[in-house]
Amino acid sequence: MRWLGHLLVFSVALLVALPFIWMAYAAFIPPEAVFSGDIFGKLGFSLANFEVLGRGGFWEGFWGRLLFSVLLTGGVTLLQLTTGFLAAYAIKEGTKILPFFLVLLAIPVELLLVPLYGLLVSLKLLDTLWALVLPFAASPFIVYLLFQGMRTVPEELLEAARLDGAGHRVLLTRILLPLLRPQLIAAGVLAFAAHWNLVLYPRIVAGSKELKTVQTWITDLQRQNPADWGPLSAAALAATLPLVIIYLLYERRIVETFEEGLKG
Amino acid sequence: MGRNNAHWFALPAVALLGLFLLYPFLDVLRFSTWDWSGLSEPRVVGLENYRNILRDPDFYNSLRITLIFGVMTLIPFVILSILLALALDGQPYERPIKALLFLPGLVTLGGATVAWYTLFSPEYGALASVLPVPRWDQSPFWALVLITLFTIWRHIGYGVLVVSARLKAIPKALLEAAAVDGATAAQAFRYITLPLLRPAITFLVVIGTVLTLQGYTAVFLLTRGGPFGGTEVLGYYLYKTGFEVGRLGYAAALTVIILVLTLAFALAQARLLREEK
User: Fold this and answer.
1) Which residue from A54, A214, B175, B183 has the least number of CB within 10 angstroms?
2) Entry pTM
3) What H or E segment, with its residue span, contains residue B209?
């Protein structure tokens, strides 16, 4: 029985890892090897695929789009954490609106493409940067995660600080912010990944060249040159690596936060 | 009333979510009574969109595909989550493997599909040069299998986490007592572990159904609904009619129908799985 378990775990793990291994391998395949069809024959290492990505103007090319996406998603993540942190604080301090956020948690954002599009049209935000920012500036999930974290902060601690004359600002920045660092990191990584992984939404509400996210850029390239995997894999790797690195750095926190959320 | 006016701190989140989440969620009802392309002036048509959907063969086809896809994905997903959580429990490699399984859900979707595409494409794919890859670009069945595998790949880490969190909450003393009473491992699993895992399984089935009924991203990225419309799940049909064909009113009515279907399914399953004891 035991060895069957090991076998299952390791075969699944291998299959799950396979696309990653392949992505890392294909990104450095020399272009000649792809054209000759001899992919596994001789091991080659080449950076040519990454050079291809740099062609064209910077802002419209891959690296510009990558930078744009990092800044955009990073900004949205900070906004989400800020609004979520403040809302979680309000709930902790006795504002009875947790049910409001829990109900919103059940609304499937992905399905709201049509009404959201209509709203952006009437607000005249279509095809502006705001269309990519405002609908994601707050998240019920992040509020919930941060409130779960704040619940573990002993009330006496806040009470003592209040007696010493601490106001909201001091409580928030000097006491709660450092105490909630782990939860903020985990929530931040999840928020970043969620916004980073929007595929259809940015395509619909912000289609112009200056607003293209790296996702859209890669998807377009794939549609135009499906057989040209060298540059495709290089782009995929470069767009995935930042997330993988952040994840590996904070993996323990993220998995634990999820587990705590499940106990909720 | 919050202490020292702390309730004001909730205002940004409440206002933003009210405007960009709650309002569109309710507003979709109004859009669903419109004939509207997004560019033209909307025309109010009452319930005509709903009437048309109920007579639309493409809608039923896409509903059928979604249900097939749901069954194809959910059953292996839940079973695999349980088996993996059991096999991983208490192993020295539990943590790193869980971390690995969780990774696909977070990485760049576009990048992940590129890796899948270049690996599995029957025409250009790397695997095709080593072993025969089914022609999922021509066969709707294999295309669905591909989407199924991709979906499971992306979410298996979460599934394992859900089951595993529940597994850890089962008191070890219970299983030890069973062993003392002479229960085999299989019996202990059947009569103790499995019933106690029921809430986790219910959770996975309900969440999984909701996600299948509403998902479309993998379809958009890998097959674009093809071949021959064979992977046109409801969510993708919604996107296509709304933003490729340009019938936003019709798509809004579809959104409402999908939401109602989701709610009905989730409630029925939650009830069924709870009462089955």
Assistant:
1) A54
2) 0.89
3) helix B194-214
Q: How many angstroms separate the CA atoms of A42 and A159, rounded? A: 68
Contacts of A219 in chain B (CB under 8 A): 110, 113, 221
Over residues A102-119, the mean pLDDT reads: 87
Asked if A235 and B111 come within 8 Å (Cβ–Cβ), the reply is: yes
Cα–Cα distance between B185 and A71 in angstroms, integer? 53
**pLDDT more than 90, % of chain A:** 31
> Kind of pairing, strands B34-35 and B43-44?
antiparallel
Residue A1 is predicted with a pLDDT of 66
Q: Are the C-beta atoms of residues B40 and B255 closer than 8 Å to each other?
A: no
Smallest CA–CA separation between A41 and chain B, in Å?
11
From A1, A167, A263, residue closest to B165, measured CB to CB:
A263
State which amino acid sits at residue A95.
Answer: T
Question: Could A197 and B108 be called an inter-chain contact, meaning their C-beta atoms sit closer than 8 Å?
Answer: yes
Q: Answer yes or no: do B84 and A9 touch at CB < 8 A.
A: yes
Amino acid of residue B274: R
**What digits encode the pLDDT tens for the residues A149-202?**
898 888 888 888 888 888 888 888 888 999 998 889 989 988 998 899 888 889
Integer Cα distance of B29 and B25 in angstroms: 8
Burial label for A83, CB within 10 Å (0-12, 13-18, 19+), is buried
Contact status, residue A206 vs residue A128, Cβ threshold 8 Å:
yes
Interface mutation vs chain A, best among B23, B98, B106, B155, most A CBs within 10 Å? B106
Cis status, amide bond into B227, omega within 30 of 0: yes
Which class for A173: exposed (0-12), middle (13-18), buried (19 or more C-beta within 10 A)?
exposed
Cβ of A107 within 8 Å of Cβ of B25? The answer is yes
- Distance, in Å, from the CA atom of B20 to the CA atom of B12, rounded to the nearest integer, reads 12
**DSSP-based three-state secondary structure for B44:** strand
pLDDT tens digits for B57-91?
999 999 999 999 999 999 999 999 999 999 998 88
Q: What percent of chain B has pLDDT over 70?
A: 97
Q: Is the pLDDT of residue A46 over 80?
A: no
Residues of A in contact with B28 (CB under 8 A): 112, 114-115
Q: Structure tokens of B16?
A: 């933003």
Instruction: Check if the beta carbon of residue B174 is closer than 8 Å to that of residue B192.
Output: yes
B38 has a pLDDT exceeding 90: no
User: Would you call A126 helix, strand, or coil by DSSP?
Assistant: coil
Q: How far is B57 from chain A (nearest CA, A)?
A: 22
Q: At B64, phi and psi to the nearest 5?
A: -60, -45
Round to whole Å and give the CA distance between B113 and B101. Answer: 17
Whether the predicted interface score ipTM is above 0.90: no
Q: How far apart are CA A229 and CA A240, in angstroms?
A: 16
- Pairwise CB contact (< 8 Å): B121 & A226: yes
Mean pLDDT (chain B) is 87
> For B13, which of A84, A167, A197 is closest by C-beta distance?
A84
Quick one: pLDDT at residue A12? Answer: 93
Query: How many CB atoms are located within 10 Å of the residue A227 CB?
Result: 12
